[in-house]
Design goal:
alpha/beta, Rossmann fold, 13 helices, 9% strand, globular
């Protein structure tokens, strides 16, 4: 066999390296392994214990039973933690806000967010331009999303007439009324929506009085190519929305911020909104932030949670778990109320206000100075 001829050569080479080290910078580094310190396994800190292992479900388990059977590790633990944070915020009347990238709407997740809005769980939304466009197209036409590769080269990508016309009209209306781009697009989706109006996040926000803002970067969206779009109107409309969002973020103490599928624009917008809120003295203590996306580009924060994967799987799952938790809490609350005890309450969108906050109510900021809540709902 050739093996016997190979090993001697390797042995001679290794011996040469060791001899060289005795006179080089590593001279005298021979270690005494007998001096290594060991400890009993029972005393060693460990990250995984028996109670952390998964438990296979029995036949036909409830969703919460299935959830409790998941391993208490990594993504499963993060899912439980995030669902609990949302359910707790809802129970305590604290705001839950969601920021949406376009992929969330394209993958069919809008109806889950609408259901949260209708239940009073989701109290506000921030969309980037792509999310707003996809949702608007679904509302008015019942379909959205192009094959960019094939249509880009023949010069037809992004030139749907109704999309550009309605968006430009929304910018003009928003600039004239100073109500923000989200409010204008939501009204247009509600008024011009056809078969897809019932599945439109924009239309639902207008119908339910849930604040919705839209944040764009010039040149990033197909609607910026039309000559009908007025740049000054677009700029004012989205700037007004940024200031509205700052007011919403300022009230996130004890609440939840969900970043769903926006990798650049909305994380940066949120960062500046947080800076504004803190500069003005608002507390963001006990705020939970979460990022749900294919890739994790940002650290979510001190109370941050990261869930990595497909939106069309993660968002429906998170929705179902939160609804189940909220339903269980609601049943407990009804039992408490039947005995004359206070139980969890459901936040409702108020005309002219934000879900969970009747609006116009005077309180004090972190410095103890009075301020007046002026952030109104998107259906005023």
């Amino acid at each position: 066999m050739r093996t016997g001829a190979v090993f001697p050569r390797k042995g001679r080479l290794l011996s040469g390296i060791i001899r060289n080290q005795t006179s080089g910078p590593l001279a005298g580094t021979t270690l005494d392994f007998e001096r290594l310190r060991f400890e009993p396994l029972r005393l060693r800190p460990s990250k995984v214990r028996l109670e952390d292992l998964g438990r296979p479900s029995k036949p036909r388990p409830t969703l919460l039973e299935w959830l409790e059977g998941l391993p208490r590790q990594l993504g499963a633990a993060a899912l439980k933690r995030l669902a609990d944070a949302i359910a707790t915020a809802h129970r305590d009347g604290r705001p839950v806000l969601a920021a949406l990238g376009g992929h969330v709407i394209k993958t069919g997740c809008g109806p889950y967010l609408i259901d949260w809005m209708e239940r009073g769980i989701l109290g506000g939304l921030a969309l980037n331009g792509a999310a707003a466009i996809h949702d608007l197209e679904l509302a008015v036409a019942g379909h959205t999303s192009e094959d960019v590769g094939s249509r880009l080269l023949d010069g037809t990508f992004g030139f749907a007439a109704e999309t550009s016309e309605l968006f430009a009209r929304a910018c003009m209306f928003a600039a004239e009324t100073s109500r923000g781009l989200g409010h204008a697009l939501a009204q247009i989706a509600l008024e011009h929506g056809d078969a897809g109006r019932g599945t439109s996040v924009l239309a639902a926000a207008a119908r339910l009085g849930v604040p919705l803002t839209v944040h764009v970067a010039i040149g990033t969206d197909i609607v910026h190519m039309t000559p009908r779009l007025n740049g000054a109107s677009l700029g004012k409309a989205t700037l007004d929305d940024f200031r509205i969002l700052c007011g919403l973020v300022a009230r996130l103490e004890g609440g939840v911020w969900l970043n769903l599928g926006s990798a650049v624009v909305l994380p940066e917008v949120f960062l500046k909104a947080v800076s504004v809120a803190r500069n003005l003295g608002y507390s963001l203590e006990s705020l939970t932030t979460a990022n749900l996306d294919f890739d994790q580009k940002y650290r979510p924060g001190a109370q941050g949670i990261a869930l990595t994967g497909h939106h069309e799987l993660m968002i429906p799952l998170l929705h179902a778990v939160v609804v189940s938790m909220a339903g269980e809490a609601g049943e407990a609350g009804e039992a408490h109320e039947a005995h004359g005890l206070a139980g969890p309450h459901r936040r409702q969108a108020e005309p002219g206000g934000v879900a969970g906050d009747p609006g116009g109510q005077e309180t004090t900021d972190r410095r103890g100075e009075p301020f007046r809540d002026t952030v109104g709902g998107s259906s005023d």
